[in-house]
């Protein structure tokens, strides 16, 4: 090799190492510490419920250097600012009482999805083999976007929905989680570095795609003198954010310090809302359809329940009580494949010590804090709690089964057996809406089609998981659908 080439290679190597060491983001001081992983349901209960105060903060995510820190609900430190954001979401658009108003929107969204799959089933060579991920993604996103931006004719002009879906897709596909056990290996650090780059790029992309929608919504409110854009009898989510006052400096005692959210903050919160509302529902639907295609008896039982209970009407959020097997199927899918792989907390040494985890766990020095990660997939598959935990057996969640009465979010008096929506102060505020959407889509998809593995010998469904931003199927589901009306 020529000396010049060697020199160029050497300089490139030094530049790479210095970027790699420095990172592309401002990182909190504790970032290099080893994450404590918790997979035992009883320990999770002790931490998140018995010691809820100590386990209510989140680790600070890395922010791109030179950029003001912008928090969503999920990343905001526990305190008045987080409380203001969370109560706005939980008491407004996500409140249980809104489910009835949501029903017509869910119905339209499921009808559109069924129509789209029906045309795909007969298109191409007519063998009915489809890869449903992107079609489901677009359908769920369209529903959440109506709640977010409202339902007026100007919606498309305000928000580039296509670019938003694309941003989600790119983020979903590129985000890979490095596990705590190998955090210090050079490969893990390289992956973390790459992830920081993606994370930094994501902030730019969110600004680029979402801020125009925020500015347009503000203008519309000013010109029309009303904050409508709401759906039915409630405000759109963006309107609630534009009206919201939050405490400045994380101090809610001084009312003069309360302020409106900035455009950047509203854009980030909308990104979080659309992501939270879409990606977990999509992930759960894909896993559930994969299991139903692989287990025809379970699918037939579900079809009988749905078709029998609903006659020709569409499922409504409030009908779901009448469909216990549908509930069990969704719960079983969430137990095996919780769409959000981890619930993370930032915990001070005394909180960690209170769990008495044994000598293997090194407490953060000087009473500092350390990141703690609850591994939701392991918690749902604990052998002490479930028989043959890796099997998909929805019956176990029916009355008389070992999972009878398991709640979606563990409460103060219950044992933790699974926690796909997390637990404690930071548990998911979208439980009711998420479950309602999943059940509505699933019921119509099973009522409309028979789902079977492709008959072309391309291999059985690959149930491998990938822990990324969501616990997706590593290989997108490929499946054969037959419209039941054509059977
Ligand atoms: C199948 C559906 C869903 C699943 C499985 C799910 C799961 C989760 C999990 C595991 C967490 C972390 C909980 C913890 O740390 O204890 C979380 C947090 C969160 N989820 Fe969901 N989620 C779903 C639907 C939704 C929906 C529909 C929304 C809103 C539109 C939403 C918004 C949020 C937000 C804002 C947080 C952060 C809460 C906080 O830090 O205070 N999620 N979700």
UniProtKB/TrEMBL annotation:
Its cofactor is heme. The keyword Heme applies. Gene3D superfamilies: Cytochrome P450. GO terms for cellular component: membrane. Heme binds at residue 428. It is found in: Membrane. It is a single-pass membrane protein. GO terms for molecular function: metal ion binding; monooxygenase activity. This is Uncharacterized protein.
């Amino acid at each position: 090799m020529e000396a010049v080439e060697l020199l160029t290679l050497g300089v490139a190597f030094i530049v790479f190492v210095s970027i790699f060491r420095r990172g592309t983001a401002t990182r909190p001081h504790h970032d290099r510490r080893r994450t404590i992983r918790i997979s035992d349901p009883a320990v999770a209960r002790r931490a998140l419920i018995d010691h809820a105060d100590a386990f209510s903060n989140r680790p600070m995510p890395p922010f791109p250097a030179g950029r003001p820190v912008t928090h969503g609900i999920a990343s905001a430190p526990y305190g008045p600012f987080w409380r203001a954001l969370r109560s706005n979401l939980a008491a407004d658009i996500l409140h249980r009482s809104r489910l009835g108003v949501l029903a017509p929107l869910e119905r339209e969204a499921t009808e559109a999805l069924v129509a789209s799959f029906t045309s795909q089933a007969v298109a191409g060579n007519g063998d009915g083999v489809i890869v449903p991920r992107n079609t489901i993604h677009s359908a769920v996103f369209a529903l959440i976007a109506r709640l977010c931006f409202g339902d007026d004719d100007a919606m498309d002009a305000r928000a580039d929905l296509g670019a938003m879906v694309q941003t989600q897709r790119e983020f979903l596909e590129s985000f890979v989680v490095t596990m705590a056990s190998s955090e210090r290996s050079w490969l893990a650090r390289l992956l973390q570095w790459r992830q920081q780059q993606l994370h930094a790029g994501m902030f730019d992309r969110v600004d680029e795609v979402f801020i125009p929608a925020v500015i347009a919504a503000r203008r519309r409110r000013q010109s029309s003198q009303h904050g409508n854009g709401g759906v039915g009898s409630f405000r759109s989510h963006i309107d609630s954010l534009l009206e919201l006052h939050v405490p400045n400096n994380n101090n809610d005692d001084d009312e003069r310090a309360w302020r409106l959210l900035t455009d950047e903050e509203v854009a980030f919160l909308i990104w979080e809302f659309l992501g939270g509302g879409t990606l977990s529902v999509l992930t759960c639907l894909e896993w559930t359809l994969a299991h139903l295609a692989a287990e025809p008896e379970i699918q037939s039982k579900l079809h009988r329940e749905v078709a029998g209970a609903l006659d020709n009407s569409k499922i409504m959020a409030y009908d779901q009580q009448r469909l216990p097997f549908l509930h069990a199927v969704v719960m079983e899918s969430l137990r095996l494949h919780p769409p959000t792989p981890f619930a993370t907390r930032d915990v001070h040494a005394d909180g960690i010590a209170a769990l008495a985890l044994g000598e293997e766990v090194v407490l953060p020095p000087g009473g500092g804090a350390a990141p703690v990660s609850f591994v939701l997939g392991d918690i749902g598959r604990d052998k002490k709690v479930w028989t043959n935990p890796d099997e998909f057996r929805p019956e176990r969640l029916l009355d008389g089964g070992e999972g009878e009465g398991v709640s979606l979010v563990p409460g103060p008096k219950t044992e933790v057996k699974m926690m796909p929506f997390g637990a404690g102060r930071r548990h998911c505020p979208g439980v009711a809406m998420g479950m309602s959407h999943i059940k509505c889509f699933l019921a119509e998809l099973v009522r409309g089609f028979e789902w079977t593995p492709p008959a072309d010998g391309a291999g059985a469904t690959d149930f491998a998981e990938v822990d990324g931003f969501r616990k997706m199927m590593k290989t997108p589901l490929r499946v054969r659908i037959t419209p039941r009306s054509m059977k």
